[in-house]
Amino acid sequence: MTLFKLVTSLSRFQKQIVFLFLDTAIVPFAFLCALALNTSIAISWPTISASAPLILCLMGISALTSSLLGLPRIKLNAFESRGFTRTIWFAGIVGVAALVLTTWMAQHLPWKISVIFTLMFLVMAMAWRMILRQITIAIYNRGRQKFRVIVYGAGQTGQQLAAALRTDNAVELVAFVDDDPTLQSLVVSGTPVYSPAALKRLTNGKRIDRIVLAMPSASAQQQTNIASRLKPLGIEVHSLPSFASLVSTGEISLKNAAMPLDELLGRQNLDSALPDATAAYSGRTVMITGAGGSIGAELCRQLLKCKPARIILVDHAELALYEIDRNLRTQINGTGTEIIPILGSVTDAGLIRHIMTEHKVEVVLHAAAYKHVPMVEANEISGLWNNVFGTRIVAQAAHDTGVAHFILISTDKAVRPTNIMGASKRLAELVVQDLATRSRGTLFSMVRFGNVLGSSGSVIPLFREQIASGGPVTLTHGEVTRYFMTIAEAARLVLLAGSYAQGGDLFVLNMGKPVPIRQLARQMIEGAGLTVRDNDNPGGDIEIRVTGLRPGEKLHEELLLTTDLLKTPHSKIMRAKEGFLSEIEVANALRDLREAIESRDAAAARKAVARWVEPQLKDADTGSATAT
Question: Which superkingdom does the taxonomy of this entry point to (predicted)?
Fold first, then answer.
């Protein structure tokens, strides 16, 4: 049996017996050392023999005291932080016992022997543990590849991290790095401290796997700047909050030094401050179209917290439907909610009506839509068919089957649209508004908002990809602005707005101030620990390049057609009052659009849309504006 197998095969009880034996065995050695160091008495066999009863009594007291103090139960790799004080008490108690017993049992020995014995006993009790600890670590580490780190910051947090890493056999702290000259060249927590100038030499010669920034008092921008300076080293950089923050916030994982995007835009943790809408959805059957999309998936996750009786997931994309179905099933946690995935399109009228009838759907959240502006602009017929007639089919089925509540997820691009995607969503709003005026049982409402961080149709995934590939980051115009909110925040507000519906409501979410996209691009570059390459900084990492507005793209998005707003119970949700088409006008609009779609006539489809929507659309062939 190898030494490693022998050590690892010992049970915890067997190890405690070994530790207790060693605490007892050092008594005679400490006593002999005490005799040898005392010059007032010559060490001889008669002296040792006369002291034997005393030594045996001290061994018994040592064993008993060690057990009572729990010293054998302290793991070797935790001894430094937990065992020093107890060991001092242990040696002190045994030393006092030695003084008493020497006076009683061995009067031939001077009292100084007991003092020297106590000191030697303390040294030996500490020494065997430290030596055995190092031997054990060496045995465990033989042939094992350790994760090697440098801690940037030798302050309190860095020292606490060092103490924690010392008990982890999988991680090795190689060095501290600190900007403070007074700490450089010192040894802190048993680890040398270097200046930042030595980092390149350390990473090249020490096989470093990660650098951890242990500077919680530094601002996010300062940490980003440090991460930027470290980027040429090719080492992964993470930041660590203070240990007090770890306890108070519950965030126990290391964060990448790049600042999260929601923090850059000032929208971090806003969703957690919102009230929930459990009462409106608890115990009900809820159907979500476009359930595999960014917004649809988050609506599903938020809904699960409301404990509905069942959630029906409808999506035409097989992989997206599979992923959200699997994700929800891992989060059910005994809520009793039934998850029903259905693969199909919202333009399949028979399927949609069958789902609502078969499962007795009570609430419909219609999030299915083609949202990518350039893609819909290049595929007008498909975009209009899916966004307009898909909405018409789902809304009409909800009306006919007695669904209690239908909520349309709309977009700020529906306001005075300059592209087919926005126009199709405005027509979808008009379709729902028309049904709302004629419905006696179903409450129809709409929720309109702007971009969400990280959605499939957002510019943010593109920027991330461009930054990861080394740039350039492309802007369509230097002055373009957009509204943004987090996906979780948007989904929570949609559900909350739905609980306020009275019928025919158009809710508009308060998105805050519009964000300049050039500023967003710069923040994302700097948040990744890089610098912007421009005239002021020709040596920067990533260039921001303006490519020109795409067909149908606006410089600035709007959320409202009018300024006529009503308050709701929540400050982030407003109720808008806007004009709508009559039943005959909606019927004519759908008829003209259907004829154009069936004939695959994109120009006719554009004209049909422009006739009924507040237009800024351009004809695809002539480039001229089409207006009512």
Answer: Bacteria
